[in-house]
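User: quick one, sequence for these tokens?
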């Protein structure tokens, strides 16, 4: 037992000599926000991976982890119904995924949205071609924001159209 007492005394002496620097409680929020962001990115990447696997997408070279840090990803089916919206969409326009699933991306448009640009997007979609456009969209609270959209058709391994994916960010 003498050896254990010496060990305990040495540990106590060591810990009492440490110069501990405290961190303000407010910094914990930054860390928690960062961990939440990382968790949501992984959840979104996994959801997209499941959709890609189920639909047998042709492999694309999109770095989804990086894109999810900087952009919002919206995925629609061939009828343009939203089947996936990344978690970070709430920062851009106030919507959460459950509010937009099954709806058409037109829910983000309004009277300030340029009809000519909307028609150009519609034409690119009908021709199954990629597009890049800047549009005036509306947040959930009705505020207008400028949105850069890069849209791409996604094909399965048989060459058949499977989905459309849009990478969006407030411009």
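Assistant:
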């Amino acid at each position: 037992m003498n050896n254990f007492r010496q060990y305990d005394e040495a540990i106590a002496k060591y810990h009492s000599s440490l110069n501990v620097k405290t961190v303000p409680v407010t910094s914990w929020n930054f860390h928690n926000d960062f961990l939440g962001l990382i968790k949501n990115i992984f959840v979104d990447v996994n959801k997209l991976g499941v959709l890609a696997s189920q639909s047998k997408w042709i492999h694309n070279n999109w770095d989804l982890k990086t894109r999810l840090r900087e952009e919002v990803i919206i995925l629609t089916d061939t009828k343009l119904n939203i089947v996936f919206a990344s978690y970070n969409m709430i920062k851009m326009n106030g919507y959460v995924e459950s509010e937009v699933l099954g709806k058409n991306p037109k829910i983000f448009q309004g009277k300030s949205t340029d009809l000519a640009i909307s028609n150009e997007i519609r034409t690119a979609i009908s021709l199954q071609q990629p597009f890049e456009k800047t549009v005036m969209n509306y947040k959930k609270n009705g505020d207008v924001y400028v949105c850069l959209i890069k849209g791409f058709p996604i094909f399965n391994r048989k060459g058949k159209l499977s989905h459309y994916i849009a990478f969006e960010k407030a411009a």
